[in-house]
Design the sequence.
């Protein structure tokens, strides 16, 4: 009986959230039109730590200058960021030493941190050089989705990887995503014609997204969690299915790779700024017909996570906004 009441309360809450979401979308869109103010931009600021001058950031529509860009959103990550960056830079430097054609950049997006995250980030810029490590300062906290969007829009890579600042997924797993993207891209490029020229092949021009996934770990997680946490997780998955449709089992893993072409389409359209931007990415991939690959990655829980049960109402709220905004065509999608 208790479980039934919980389910009914959960469903009632969903209905209320979607109704309020519709009202919110209409009000926000009316405000935007009245003030002629499209999706508000948080200014992207890039600083050279040696000159302390602000330098204009590159843009996603510019030609790629690097092979790989790694975008790391950071909010109050003074303690977890150094270890993750050390591991990341060691991997990238070793790979560059073994392959002279390999070029990379790491973009740390400081999402309005109030601790020493900015200092940690700039220490790495000074150590490895501004050509390899860059910091974008958002000034105030906008949310993980906005931080990643900014990093993507101002990156230089043919391939763009988003990864969390806690190092929960080993950076070496990026090769799993990278190899699958290349395999699918070459297959699409050749279209079964072995005479297609390699000189015309550019991985950056073929829209593909690879989602790192922890779905293979779900059975173990279900066995160790409390029943009500499993219920909430299943409920969230159901809402995601209703909002974005099937296709990706684990939308929330913070380890995703995009070709430059895919990032250009997705991150010039994305609107959600916090937890559920991942779900919006799935929705937009389907809208544009961008192939989505889901690839198992190694993952370990790192102490200090900022996700808690109180985040669930906010997640549901964002999903309601997204579902209503797109399905009523109030939110427009740029081609």
Sequence:
């Amino acid at each position: 009986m208790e479980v039934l009441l919980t389910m009914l309360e959960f469903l009632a809450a969903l209905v209320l959230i979607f109704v309020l979401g519709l009202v919110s979308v209409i009000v926000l869109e009316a405000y935007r039109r009245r003030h002629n103010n499209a999706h508000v931009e948080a200014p992207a600021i890039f600083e050279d730590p040696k000159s302390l001058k602000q330098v204009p950031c590159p843009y996603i529509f510019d030609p790629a200058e690097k092979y790989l860009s790694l975008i790391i959103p950071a909010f109050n990550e003074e303690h977890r960021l150094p270890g993750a960056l050390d591991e990341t830079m060691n991997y990238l430097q070793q790979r560059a030493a073994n392959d002279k054609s390999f070029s990379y950049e790491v973009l740390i997006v400081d999402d309005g941190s109030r601790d020493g995250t900015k200092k940690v980030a700039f220490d790495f810029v000074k150590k490895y050089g501004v050509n390899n490590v860059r910091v974008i300062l958002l000034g105030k906290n906008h949310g993980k989705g906005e931080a990643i969007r900014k990093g993507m829009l101002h990156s230089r890579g043919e391939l763009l990887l988003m990864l969390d600042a806690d190092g929960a997924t080993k950076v070496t797993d990026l090769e799993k995503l990278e190899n699958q993207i290349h395999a699918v891209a070459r297959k699409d490029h050749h279209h079964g014609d072995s005479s297609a020229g390699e000189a015309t092949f550019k991985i950056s021009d073929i829209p593909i997204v690879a989602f790192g996934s922890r779905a293979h770990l779900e059975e173990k997680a279900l066995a160790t969690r409390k029943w009500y946490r499993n219920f909430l997780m299943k409920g969230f998955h159901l809402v995601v299915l209703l909002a974005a449709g099937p296709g990706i089992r684990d939308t929330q893993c913070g380890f995703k790779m995009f070709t430059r072409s895919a990032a250009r389409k997705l991150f010039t359209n994305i609107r959600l700024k916090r937890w559920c931007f991942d779900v919006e990415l799935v929705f937009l991939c389907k809208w544009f017909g961008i192939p989505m690959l889901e690839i198992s990655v190694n993952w370990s829980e790192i102490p200090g996570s900022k996700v808690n049960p109180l985040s669930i109402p906010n997640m549901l709220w964002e999903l309601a906004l997204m579902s209503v905004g797109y399905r009523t065509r109030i939110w427009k999608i740029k081609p």
Notes: The chain has a mean pLDDT of 81.
